[in-house]
Every structure is written in structure tokens, then in C-alpha cells.
Write a structure and sequence with these properties.
The protein is built from 24 helices and 77 strands. By secondary structure, it is of the alpha+beta class. Helix 2 packs across helix 6 and helix 18 runs antiparallel to helix 19. The longest helix is centred in the first third of the chain and has 74 residues. The protein starts with 9 loop residues before the first helix and ends with a strand.
Amino acid sequence: MEEPIAQFSDEELMDNFPAMDDERIQLEAPEFEVEPLPLGFEDTTALGCSCLAKEEEGNSGKMKKTTIKDKVEAFHLRKSLNLLDKLHEEKDLFIQKTRGELRVCRQRMDLLNKQQESLASEISAEREANNMAAMGRLQAASRRLHAELENEKDLQSKITAMLKDSENAMWHIEIQKGQFEDVRKRNEEEAEARQSSLEVHAAQQLQKEKETLEKVERNRLLRAQKSLHVQKELGQKHQKLVEDAQKNHRIAVKFLKASLGRIREREQEEEMESRKHMKRRMDAVLALKNSITASRETLKKFQAWGQGRAELAKQKALVEKEMILAQGGDAFKHLIHQRRQQELEAQHRAFEEEQKLRKQEIVSRILKEEAEEGNRKKKQHPPCKARDGWTLRNKTWKYISDFCEGKPATPSSHLLESEMALHPKPTCLLKAISSESVQMDLGSISTEEEVLAEPDIPGLWSKEYKAHQVSKKDMEQKPLGGTKMDKDILARTMEQLRSGVVHKQVVSGREFKGRPFNSKPEVIHFKEFDIGKVYKKKITLINATYTINYCKLVGVEENLKDFIHIDFDPPGPMSAGMSCEVLVTFKPMINKDLEGNVSFLAQTGSFSVPLKCSTKKCSLSLDKELIEFGSYVVGETTSRTITLTNVGGLGTRFKFLPDSEFFEMEEPQPIMKISSLYTCEDKSLYEKIITSLSEQQLDINESSPVDIQSRKESEKDETEIIPAASVITMAPSEEQAEITLGEVTEGEIGPFSSVKIPIIFTPVIPGEVQTKFKVMFKNSQCPTLYFRATGIAVDVPVWVPRATVDLKICIYDRLYQDSIIVHTRSKAALRLKFEVCKELRGHIELLPETGYIQARSSYSVQLKFLPRHSLPEDAGKYFDKHSRVLEAPMTIWVADQIKPVEFTVQAVVTTSDLEISPLEINFGYCTIYEAIRTEISLSNLSLLPQEFGFVGLPKYVDIQPNDGFGTILPLETLQLDVIFQPIKAKEYRFELICKSEINRCFKVSCQAVGVHPPLELSHYQIKFSATALYDTTVSTLYVINSHLSMNKLTHSLPRIGSEEATPVGPTSFEFLLPPDSPITISPSVGTVLPGKKCVVQVAFQPVLPHEVILKEAIQILNKEKENKPFQKETVQRKETWKPSMPLVRVHNRDRPTRASTPHTPELHRQELRVSSPEYQAAQASLARSFQGKFDRIVVPCVVASGDIKDRKALEPLRFSPHNTLYLELWCPVVAPSIVVTSNKGSSVLNFGDIAVGHRSIKRITLQNTSPEDLALEFSVLSPNGPFVLINPSRKLCSGESQTLVLSFSPRESMLVQEILDIITKRGTLSLTLTGTGVASMITCSIEGNILNMGYVLAKESVSTTFKLQNESSLPIKFWMQLESLSRKRDETRQQLPKFLTSHEQRTEIVGTQNHNGQSVFSVAPVEGLMHPGKAQEFTVTFSPDHESLYFSDLLQVVLFEKTVSHQILLKGAAREHMMFVEGGDPLDVPVESLTVIPALDAEHREARSPSPEAEEIKPILVTLNYVQFDTDTPIPPATRELQVGCIRTTQPSPRKTVEFSLDGVTWLQHKGFSIEPSRASVERGQTKTISISWVPPADFDPDHPLMVSTLLQLRGDGKETYKVIFVAHVVAGI
């Protein structure tokens, strides 16, 4: 019992209170006085008071009296009072508990006193009865009760003292509470005052809130009035905008029909083109199919040819081998010599090809150098006069052939001069097509075309030029490509240069690829430059790589070096994102556009910045191409202006004139530009060369000085404008005279300026007028600009501005209105009559029908259009049913005017129907724990988008997406999901109502049956965490039976729809898993009692599909099989190598495919097993390359009433399909984070067959493939199992590998398998450890494990054999050990002899031993190895050195130096003479003393040589028990047997047999004995049985056993006499 606080003094209680003077609260603002204080309802009062102080200034003086110190003291006082109350309650409770304990203690003391009194009376009674035992027991009980009573008294005194202390403490607490009673009352009064002040403040606050609410309401009304006014203004603005839009749309309506017609024609053309394209594709596919078929046939032919060649080569090799062998030669040596010769020939051919390639490379380099030299010296040599001579191609290839053959090139000088004179320009072409941009076969260009050109190197073709003659000695010393040392030095130098310039940049495992530096600006563009001026621009290069980089200026292109200068100071190493500046200076010398690149070199590669230089140009444009004047009355004049704008930096002269006139500017343009690159002859030459090169498949992707495309465009521009000699004027027509140019038609336009030209329209004849104009310029580079002007001349005074009123798209049964404005030019008022065609009078109405229009004013008519569903039939020709377009003609009749004014009302009429499919939905049966989703399609048949929404949905129906609301586009079909989830079991019939924005309703009828199943699941959806392959994730749920009673008022009863409720009772369930699913549910079948729940575990173990693994394994097997024939065929191909290299290589590549075709997948499937190495390697490979997937599995759970134990063995449960529950499983699968890299990736570690007691060690390597370090945990292997993990690890870093060492040491013969789980936070890797403990299964040919050697003459030996058979699958090493030769034998000899102990203690296996110290028994072989299924023969030899009947030993078969497989007991007996007798009851001990008995010693026996009368007689006791039964059946006699034998010996003996005889046979017969035979002889090595039977004679007394004796004499190499004692008993049978 805990000791409470005994007493509280006044000083202790005051110490518990916080010090008032020492504690001070530091305040930051004086407003803190009115803020609330925590912990206490008084704080709320203080808060209310502070609020009143802020709002009412009159009470401020009173509230300020409450200082901070007073509040702190009041707070601590309240805290002290609360502490006293708490201590009072605790002390009161403790006193009550203590009094209760004291009361219980006194009750126990009373009980003990009563028990003592009763024991005292019993003790006195027993003392009188002199019962000392009972009295002692009662006295002990009395002492025990006395001790308990003393303990209770001590406890009572302690409790009394504790109670007294507690009461004293309680008194002190009450005294202290009395001292604080005044403080408590004062606090209560203050709380009541604060509460009243709070109520007053709340009333005032309520009044203020009401006033504020009224003010807010007034403001809201004002805002509403203001918003109405703003909306009205916005409506007027919107109306005005609509009118303006309709006016602007008036022109576009006119071309609607034409546009639709053009669109249809274009669609038809596209359809025709698509058909033609499809036909071409079909033809191409057919051609491809035929080509594939032909290729397959060709491959088959090549395959057959290759096989035939291989067979012929093989036969040829065999024939040669036979011939060599026939001649007596060495075939193997000849084959080696032939192979070496073939290899040398192949090396020689490869060397020749390499030499040819090097020659071609040298020639190409020479040509490249010559072209560069010619480019540098081009300007120094003027063209010569033209003469007849060779073509450029002939001379070039003659020079190349002479150079390759080593001849000096000596072209004639007159040829050179003629070529240079005739064709000075093709030199540029030869430079353009250099060895850098054209790579071709040097012998593939024909020399038929004649191309004249000058040599690139001056003097190359002259007679004075002499080629450098290389001496024959130098040619022999150095090969064409240089010596091998020169090649190595050149290769090392180039590698060092390359490695020093460009490096790969790899940061954080990512290699940088792309442009190393970004330029700002991206293009250096010098615009509008003037010759002679200097322009400068700065660009910024920004390092865009991942880390430090360098930048080096390489230079500019060759064509820019004379004009561009680059100032760049290399900044050294630049970090990522840093920049440097480059200054580009441009000094133009020619007026020509220039383009090129500024090249730089970075550490990660080269890059360039584009550079452009643009001359001044004219960029002219018109602001409009069509000038539309509109409708004007004949005689009026109007004008429009058109603006000509020049945004270029070069001015020019312009002239406006009609398109039908021609005009020549002052300076006629030449037929050909002087700045042309080459003449027409050069062009034809170039085209011929390009055609020849393209036929030979040349690569011309690199840049060249001549740009083909730009040259063609320049030539086209030159031939476009053909100037005329004079201006040809045409007589203007009437239409051209109506639209004319203004006064200003020509002039100068400066750079960056514009000019406005007036166009005048003066209608003469009513109708449409159109005129085309053009603008020509003096600058030939400026193209001619064209524009046209149109206008309409009318002579009717009344007209409608909108000839076509477009109502856009209209819906049936909806009213549409529009205003039609009618204008008049008349100076008098006119009467108008508006008329609608009779076909459309039921749909269109013009109001008013008649009206008057005032002079020079307008008149508005209201158009009402209400299309009805009969419009297509009523309108007739005015309505197109396909396009749904209505074009209705309207007529305005003007008084006193024959010609009416007509306009057209145009509209597209469409329906507003929404089509829902299907119109009826049957959800079927659905439980209240699930939802059924079905799809409906909502189609919009209208040409307008419509808003829709499903309204009035029941609470058990949901429509998604957007809760059934949305907008559907024209002619669109939406798929909506209708989700039904019943809330109780009943039949549901309801309608889904879809409303459109015009309040049209569309209904869908639905019906369903709600089902309340008798069972429910705790979870209907399980989301497994991301699980690695072959890992397991387990989740738990409950199957609950909540059906306890049939009272439908307390809860809903389980039922199907409106059927009867399910009775209360046990309910069974079964989860039906889909086939081949990675889900395991335990238990999948069970029964749940009412009000109970069953735990169900759902395990998710993803695995790879068997078919996928099998397919991958087949591919691996195919690859392994393909490699072997490929290697064999490669050797055969080398033997038959010929110059046709490409063909042989093709056949070599195709050979493995053909070799693998006979192996069909079916054969591989039969060969492969799950435990095969290929299958496991494929499984590991797929697991490492697995990318992850996600599966969603739905598992149905059927429910049935009843217990599964009540059903019969094979009788299924009667499940109701309507009560089915559904469990949804989300199963994400990821790649394993830890994989096995050793053992071909297999997670199965098979130790194989290991002998019991032995140990095998294997290693397995694991790799962490995840991006993070993983902590490893290992599952516990069986402590009594054979598997042990030797080196467990705690951590595996990312990307690293570790090797685990496991051992297997079986203790018994059995197949053992355990799972070692390697657990990480990302998953678990399971290693399957298997091994087979193989016991040493050895069978022995000896039955009973006892080998009896029989009788042997002393000092002779006998041998016998037996076999041990190895029945196990392992080789077994064995050792043969005799117990007499074991190490424990010495310890055993230190004990007492066995014959001195009792018979029960005699367990000695080793019997009598030889006196000479040698072992009696020996075995051979002693050790060896038995192979599986083999037998080993052993020979046992018995060699006694003295006579004894108890020779014995134990032979042990020890396997592997540990296990004793067999124990064979060896027995034998030795005699001095050749005869012996067996049988009878034992009369002596089976253990002999080691002391030599003189009587048994041969020397003493010979020395004594006793007389025949003193011959020793040996006793034999034969006991016969005659069993007598109470039945009348005949009783068999009692029988015993004795054996008399003769020992086979190799010693010479005068007697060959042993004779024996029994004395007193007749007398024995009178006693009831029968002995057969009584006399006989025994051959050597044989025994004779003496049968003894006994039947009690008539005078036999069963109470006294019969005892008789007789003599048995044996005669052989000696004579022995035995006294046979017969003892007969009669025994009662059971």
C-alpha cells in the first residue's frame, strides 16, 4: 500500500503557491491590460470587461483600476484553491480506503481468534485420546494461526497510525480552506459581476449588428439598381455591336455558295487522289510480297548451294586424306599445311586490297591538295584562248592512272592552252566538286562527256612539268602507306590530338549532348550595309554544358575572310551558365549578300554561329489588294486611296497603270546579268556532271562554293522579265473608264516611306464594275504588284443595304427576329409593300406588310422567323435537305415602279433533339455494398452546341462525368457512366430525366433489384503497395455476419429484392479466384456464425507468366544452338575462301538462321522444365528487365446459407448468384530491388546430394539495382535444420554486389527445402535452399548380423566371406573395426572381470581371446571405397590358439569415419579334438579368465597323461517340459535335441569319422524317454542330431520332477565321455 502525504503544514502549503512579489510579467503594450488571461472562466469575464472598456469610454476609469498585479495574484489564488480542493478530495478518498482496510483487518483477526479457539478444543480432545500424530498436526496449525494473528495485529497498528496521520493532514487542509474562504467568495462575486457585464455588452453588440444589417441591406438595394442600369447600357452596346457585325458579314454571305461548291470539288479531288494513292500502295505491297517470295527462294537456293559446297569440300577432304594415307603420308600434317597455305593466301589478298585502298586515298588527297592550290592561285592566271583538245575527264583520269602506275604526267601544252581558251569558267565547277564533298569509286565515272577545264595546279599539264621520279631503291624500302613505325607514330599523334581537343562531358552519370555554347543573338546579321563603312556587332556566348568548358575561335569561312574580322579573347575555363563576348567587325567591299558561319571549338565539340550580310533592298507592298466601292447611283463620284509602302533601305521609282497596259522603264534590263556565275554552256556542263555523279551514288551533302538552288532561282528571275521596246496602249472600254486612277500615278518612293494613290469610281451604267491595276518599279529586283477595284452602279431609288439577311443557325419551334433597313434616294415619299413567297408564309412574316418611306430616309421592317417541323415539305426548292440551308426570296414592291426590290433571307435550320441510347436500362441484381456502372450514349443531332443536365436524380444514382451536366458539341456523341448503388433490398423502378438548355426533356427508364446479402466484407477494395516480382504482400479483411434477428424494425433484413428474408443462422462463403491469378486468399471457404466475423488474409505474389518465361528460354536455347553450327561453318568457310567476298559473307550471315529453322518451339517446350537452367536464366533475365505494371482484379465471393461441415463430401454448397460480394484488388508490380547475379540469376540454390553428416558450402551473389542504399534483414532459418547463413550482411549500397555464403550439413536422409527471405524496405527476395541428405544405404549379406564360424580345431583357422552392397547414389568410404582392437578396450580392461559380476550385468561383447595376444578374428579389406550400386566382398578369418566355446568379437562397419552402419557379431568355438557335442542347458559362464588353467594347459596335460579310469566326464543337462492341457486333445511329447559333430581339419588323422553311443537306452525307455539314434558315426565337417522325447509314464508324480542320467561316449582322434542328465517336468498349459 502506498504511503500518502501524512500532513501538510502551513509553511508547506504556502511554499506550493507561487511568489507574488518575485514574478513579474513584462508587457509590450498597455493594451495588454484588457486582453484575456488563460486558464479560468474568470478570463472570459476579463475579456468582456476589456471589450466594454474599448467601446464605452464612461466605464474606462473603473476598468483601469484592475491592475496587472491584482490579476496575477487572483490567478495564483484560484490556482491555490484548486490545489487545496484536489488535495482534500485525494485525502478524503485515501482515508476512506484506509478505514476499509482497517475494517477488513479486524474481521480477519476475529476469524483467526475463532479458529484458535476451535483448534484449542480439538487439541485438548486429541490429548485426552492420546492421539499424538493428530495433536502434533493441530499444534502446528495453531502456531501458524498465531503467527498470522501477530501479523494482522502489526498491520492493524500500521493502518491505525496511517489513518491518524491522514486525519491530521485532513484537518490541516480544512483549516487552510477556511482561511481562503473569503477569497473564494470574493472570486465568485467578481465572476457574477463579470457575467452581468457580459450580458449588457452582448445586448449592445446585438443592437449594433442590427443597425449594421439595415445599412448593408440599403447598400445592396443601391448596388442592384446600379447593376440594372449598367446591364441596360451593356445591352444597348451589345445590340450596336451585333448590327455592326451583321453589316461586316454582308459581303461574305455572297460567296457562301461558291465556297461550298469549291469545298465539295476539293473534297472530290482529294478522294480521287486518296484512291489513287491507295491503289499505288496496294501495288507496292503486292510487288514487295513478290520480291520477298523471290528473295526467300533465292535464299533457299543459296542455302542448298552452300550445303552442297560444304558436302563437296568434306568429300574432297576425305578423298585427299585417304589418298595421303594410301601413299603412306601424314594426313594431319598435310591438313595443317593446307590450312596455313589458305590463311597466307587470304592475308595476301587482304594486303593487296589494303594497298589499293591506300592508293585511292593518296590519290584523293593529291586531288584535294591540287584543288586547294588552284583556289589560292586562281586570280593569278588569266584565261587563255580556246583550242581543240582533250576533255577534262580524260586528262584527269590519265593523270591519276599515270600517277598510280608511276609514270610521269606529260600533257601537251597546246591541249592546255586550248582548254583554257575555250572554257575559262568550269574551273569553279571542278573546285566545287572536290574530294571532300564527292566520295566515289575512282574507276566508276565514264569518259563519254567532254568537259573542258583548266588544271587546278598551274603547269600541271605543260611539257616543262616533270613529275618527281622516285628511285626504285626508295620504292622497295618504303611501302606505299609508310613503314609500320611511321603508321604507329602517326596513329599515336592523331589520338593525342583528338583526345586533347574534344572530350566527352559526363556529370552525375549523364553525358552532355548538343550545342556546347548558345549565342545571343543566334544569328549575326548586318542589314542594309553601305560599301566602305565599318559595322561592328557584339555577340554573347553562354556555356550551356553541365560543367566547366573552354571556347576557342576557329575562324570564319573562306568567302568571308576578306570582309569579316573577329576579336575574341579566350576567357579560359568557363563554368556552366557563364558567358563571354565576341566582337565581329564587318567591312563591306562589294555590294553582295554574304552568308557563312563563325566557327568555334569547345572542349565537348565544335559549333558555329551563322553570319549574314544583307545589301540594301526594296521591300514594297500594298495595304490592300481589293478596293470595294459598294453600290452607288449612276452619276455619283467617289474615291478610295491605296497606300504603297517601302520598308526596305533602298528607294526606287514606281508607276501605277491598268493591268491591260504595258510600259517600259527608262533603263532596259539586259538579257543576262553580268554577275552570273557561269554561262549557259557552263550550266549544261554542270548538269551533265551532276547527272553522272548521281548515277554513281555520290555523296554531295557537304557545302560547296556553288549553290545549285540559288543559281536556278537567279536564272529564273533573269528570264522572267522580258522588256518591250515601246508602250502598247489599248483603247479603254466602258468599264475601265468608270474606275480610274487619280492625278498622281508615278513618282519616287524613298526608303522606309509610303505613298497614297487615289482611285476614283464614277458609275455610268448600272451593274457591277471591276478593274485590275498593277504597279511597276524601276528596280528589277522588285516584283510587279497587282490589285483590283470593284463597284456596283444602281439606278433604283429604293434599296436594301443587306441583300442577304443571314439568320445563322436556327432551331425548330423557336422564334427569331431581325430588322431590315430600307433606304431611298428619292426626293419624295414612297409607298412600300413587303411580300413573302407563298411557300414560306407559314414560317416567315414581315411586319408591317405596308408602309411609307420618307424622302431620303430609311425605313425599318421587322422580320419574324418561326421554323416548324413542316418546313422541309413546305419550302420545297428553297430548302436543301442535305445541308439544311434555307434561302427564302423576299420582295419589296414600290409604288409607281415596275421593278421590285428583292433580298434573300438565309438560315440553317436544325433540330434541338438529344438522342439517348439505350432508352431502357436494366441493372439486374445489385447488392447494397457495391455499385453497378453502365454506359449510355448521348448524341446531339443539332448543329448547335447544347447544354444538358440530368436533374432530379435519386440519391442511389450518380451520373459521371461532371455529375451529369455539361455541353455537347454539334453532332457529337458523349459516353456517360450511370452508377447505381442501392441503399436497401427492394425492387427499383425509376427514370433518368435529361433536360437541355431550352427546357426539353429526354427520359431513360431504369429498373434494378437491390440485394442485401447475409454477409458483408469489412473492405471491398484493397490497394496493395508496390510489390516486387516474387515478393508477397499480405492484407487482412473480415467476413462479417451481422444478421442476428428477424426483427425488421430494428435493422434491415438480408433478402433479395422483395423476397423473403434470409433466416438467422450460420452462413458460408467462398472466394472464387480467377485462373492464373497472383492472388491467394486464406481461408477461401468458411462459415461465419451470427454476430461473428471471420479473418481472411489476401496475399499478392506477382510472378512472371509461364508462357513468357518459356518463350524467353526458347530464345536463349536457340541462340546457344545457333552458335555451335555458326562456329563450325565459319571454319568450313575459311577453308573454301574465294575472291567473291561479299557473297560468302551474306551466306555466312544467313547460315545460322537456316540452321535453327528445323528446331521448332514445340520441341523446345518439351525439352524445357521449370527446373532447367535455361528456364531459370530466362526468368532472372526477365525479372531484371521488368518495367512494372498495374493490374486490377475483381474476386467474387459467393454466399450460401448453412455450415460447410453439414454438407456431404462432394456435395457443393448451394450458392445464390444474387448474394455475391465482390472484392476489388489493385495490384501494382515493380521490378525487384535486389536481384541474384550469380547462378544465371536463379534464386534456387540446390546443394545436390550430400552425405549425412557432411557439409557443403555454396555462394550466391546479390546486387542492389535500386537507386538507394538498402538495409538487409534475413529471416530465421530453422535452428535444427541443415542450412546455415555464414556471413549475413546489414547493408547493401546502391549498384553494389555482395556474396552470401551458405552451408548445408544434413543430419538425416531426406530432401530438405527452406526459404531464406532477404527483407528490405522495397521488398523481399526469397531464396529457395534445397538439398538432399543421402544416408549411407548399405545392405549386408549376413542375416541377423551374426556370423557364426562354427567349431575349429585349436591352432587352426577357417575363413568365410560376406558382402556389403552400396544402395545409395554416393560413393562411400568405409572402415572395418573390431571391438577387441578398439581404443576403449583398454578402459574396459581396467574394470572387474565380467565373470565376477552377476548374470544381469554381463554385457561383454568381446569373448575369449587368444593367449598369444593375436586377435582371434581378422577381416580383410580393412578400408576402401564403395562405388554407387557396387558390392564389396569381405573375408573373415577365425584363428583360435586354444580350446574354448566362447570366442566372440564385434565387427563394426564405419562410414566416413563417423557413422557406424552395421555391427556384426562374430562367434566361434575351438576344440582340442575333432569331435564336439552341442545342445543342452548352459552350466557354466560364457566368459573365461585370462589365467591359464593348468588342467587346460597342453604341457601339463601331456605331463600328467591320466589313465583311462581317471578320464574326465563332462556333464550335459537336458530339461524337458511336458505341457499338459485340460482338453481331451492328444498332448505332444516334450522334445529336445543334441548335435554331435566332427570338425573338418587339414591335419593328418588316423580316423576320418567320429562315432558316438548312449548307454542305458532301454532303462531310459521305461522312464518314458525315447532317443533316436542312440549310436551312429559322423563324417568330417558334418553333424548328427540326437532327438530326445519324453512322455510321462503312468506312475509319474507331477509334484516330483523326474531326474535320470546316462553316458554319451564319443570316439575320434580321442575319446570323450559326457554324462547326460535328463530332468523332466509336467507343466500345466494355459
